[in-house]
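Hi there, hope your week has been kind to you so far. Thanks so much in advance, here it is:
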Amino acid sequence: MSIEISKPGTDLERHPVPDPGLEEHIERWTDVDKEAGDRAYRQVLLMLGAVPVLAIAFVVIYFAVDRTSVVHIFGLEWDALTFWLGMTGGLATLLIGLACVHWAKTMMGDEEIAEDRHSAASSAEDRALFAKEFAKGAEQSGLGRRKLIGGALGGALGLIAVPAVVLFADMGPWPTAEMRKKTIERTIWAEGVKLVNDVTRRALKASDLEIGQLVNAQPESLWEHHGTEFQIEKAKASIIIVRMDPDRIKIPDSRKDWQVGGILCYSKICTHVGCPISLWEQQTHHLLCPCHQSTFDLSNSGLVVFGPAARALPQLPITVDADGYLVARSDFTVPVGPSFFERDSSGDFKEGDR
């Protein structure tokens, strides 16, 4: 047996595998049968024509279907709005892909070509050849003879973007001053709402708290809400209640009636980026946020004594009812949670305020 050794630069080195050549070309059925070609043409048009209808249906469903409604399919409960948006938007996208694949397989040019590998850089002659071949491919696409496909594809691609644009509405309402007052600048705290333990939901009496104690609490009315609404209201209304020696705390004149015998109530939400806080230092009366170490002095109206927080912890005005239970006097007087650029923070308490 002899072994042939290739020499550098020889044809054997450049082409170690024999060129198999092109297989015999077999005509497609749609090229041979005009009726089959026309049928494929109509199928592509039908699929692309259905896309605008589905896009319009998507928009109508988005605004018309109740967000709380459900549908039952295969024994499972589905959110109706999400289900129908997924069906219309997904089917529209699928039809564009199927139409393009069907178009390519049944109507575009079906000639096999082979080309030797060349360097990555293209010469002027190659670019001219590419332009010529591109023009030839455009001609073979059939758009010259079947111009409706180009228009249908353009319309489908244009209108498929409409559902995506409509979904931007779910990014939330425009944060106007009026909208902020109705949403992020209010909580469910109101006059007479009882303060309850956030775990046991037991209403709290002033006599229940000892000096130095901290209790995590919620408004009694929180459990009137459900689902997403429950989570939203809880995120804003969460509070901590602390009892301190009245002789060791500073109470400004404007807040004399906001406390009960050294019992004060503050928002549990840090004014930096909104972390829940309850790390309580009894001796210093400081409340520490575990996220970025913002520290608030609860014995002095919740003022910031350390860290990145820019404003005092909001204080909830409280009193007691006829049965001795702790209740709110009103909602918070300033928005709770992290600061935001659009809000006028002139109502926040600062050192020296009375």
Observations:
- The domain at 178-328 is CATH 2.102.10.10 (Rieske Iron-sulfur Protein).
